[in-house]
Amino acid sequence: MKDYRFKSFDDDVEIWAIGSLFRWISGKQWNVGLQLTPSQRRNYLSISNAPILARKRTINPTTEFQEPGYKQRIRISDTSKWEVKPIRDCPIGGFARRPDAGQLCFVFENYDGRIIFLPQFELARILFFHGTYLSRTAIESDCLKSEFDVAVDDAQDTATIRVMPSASYTVSHLNEPGTQNYLSWLLLDGGARNSYESICKYQRLHGIDTPKYRRWTFQFDPPPLTDVFMRTRGRFVEDVNCAFIWEIDEIKNIPNRMPEEVYIEHPEFERSVPGSGQAVHPAGNGEESPLVIHDDVVANASTTSVVMTGDSVSVAFKNPFHVNRVASKERKTPTSSTSEETDGKLVSVSTEEGVADRGLPAADWNTLKDETDYSQFYENKFDCFLNMVRILIESYECVSVSKSIIPLPQMGRCKKHLLSNGNPRCIAVICLSTGGKTVCLLEVDTSDADKALSTQVLIVNDLAGWETNVERIQQELVQASLRWPKELLDKICGKQRHKGVNHPQAPKGNRGVLDPESIAGWAGRVYGWGLCL
């Protein structure tokens, strides 16, 4: 279930259609017209909430709904050959009478010969609208030029992005690695940037003023996508060989023409140093308070944005790149204290533009699930661990089955998926086989902690379900503040089929260095427990 709800709507409201965008002539907040079932007193949401607006989605669900629609795989071969047509031209029966019949679609033939009608708003949503800032400023702003200074060094294959002090793109927007990566792509890839900026261009060209409103049929130019794969849901009618797309939930192999190393500078970036400050956390049992979203009240710019994770979109770039935060301030590492009880109480928040010292606490969306393979940039964090695995393969005749190094997932408002410097905290997952069984080793980057987390050794029974199970382990690991979830491991492996193996003792003041003998002893302990049973 979602941990948020919209104040303006009843429970279990379905988005039937997405219409034109509008704003009041005297105002600056753009809204998205909606056709809702059942009908509501209000039939729109602000553009700040575009990240969660897709046809057939349910607003304020009270139960878990099965994802509706026909599942369609799409391969984009060349966006320059796409046609633009209104929804009313879709040959599926009844579409000419839809309330959003005038909205624009990209139309093209898929690899399977089917004709695809892809609403332009939906493609823009999964490409650009993953947070409130880029959703809001896309419509009527030249923010990319005025709020970010970009310098590219072609000789060194690096780029530096400086967030200007006056920028409304606050540091809280950059607290998630996925957001940093996506902003870097948008600023540095020429095709992506031109596509994003075309949204504002078309609004200014084709928006229509009436006595009360300015209205606009959403339109933009797609970026140059080739050999890109999407997973979608919608309606397919075989008689007319046509699919109309309601929602895209995965896009892979996104082209990104940009430097491999990127540095982001923000005036408020900090690096942690030991200290005696205090961090205030809510009291209670650790459950997150449900949020009530208001999009008709300003946000308080003096508060740190609460990040809401709506239904995620899986994205993967064609070429991995590495984003580095450049800190200009020092922050004392806080000890914890407790605030007043908040568990279970409703908290009102706003997704709108911030105003200093007034309004509701700010909230932001994060619908990104970045599945790009960045492991090449994280391997150095696991040098000693990977050396130990190499000894298992070379000296103990273990066979490598799989290897992955991935960032831990964000879970609600918990921050343990990040290192103290704001970079991703990663987990290495290595599977080995020996003696007819498969053993998986889990190692977490705790380079920012006083004590390392033990290497977890698991004897895997269900190989088919391992991918799902390791995701569950990661989620509970983060939620448990980097403690191995023993009860879950018991369920997955059995009570006597998993064990934590301690790391060798490192020299004082140099935790990242281990002598070869201690690494060999580490490998022997891992083999002795899990691999020779």
Structural class: alpha/beta
Number of helical segments with 4 or more residues? 10
Largest sheet: 8 strands, mixed
Shape: globular
List unreliable stretches of 5+ residues. Answer: 273-286, 333-342
Describe the structure.
The protein is α/β, with parallel strands linked by helices. Helix content is 20%, strand content 36%. It is built from ten helices and 33 strands. The strands form eight sheets. Strands 6, 7, 8, 9, 14, 15, 21 and 28 form an eight-stranded mixed sheet that branches. Strands 2, 3, 4, 5, 12 and 13 form a six-stranded antiparallel sheet that branches. A hairpin with a 2-residue loop joins strand 30 and strand 31 (437-444). The longest helix is centred in the middle third of the chain and has 17 residues, at 190-206. It is globular and about 80 Å long. Residues 273-286 and 333-342 have low confidence and may be disordered.
How is this fold's topology laid out?
Layout: E1 4-6, E2 13-24, E3 31-37, E4 44-46, E5 58-59, E6 70-76, E7 83-86, E8 104-109, E9 115-119, H1 120-127, H2 132-140, H3 143-147, E10 148-153, E11 158-163, H4 177-188, H5 190-206, E12 208-209, E13 213-216, E14 228-237, E15 242-254, E16 261-265, E17 270-283, E18 291-294, E19 299-300, E20 306-308, E21 313-317, E22 322-326, E23 329-341, E24 347-350, E25 354-355, E26 360-361, E27 363-365, E28 368-370, H6 375-378, H7 383-395, E29 399-407, E30 426-434, E31 437-444, E32 455-459, H8 466-479, H9 486-493, E33 498-501, H10 516-531
Parallel strand pairs: 1-18, 9-15, 11-16, 15-21, 16-22, 17-23, 18-24, 19-25, 19-26, 20-27, 21-28
Antiparallel strand pairs: 2-3, 2-5, 2-13, 3-4, 6-14, 7-8, 8-9, 10-11, 12-13, 14-15, 29-30, 30-31, 31-32, 32-33
Helix pairs in contact: 2-5, 4-5, 7-10
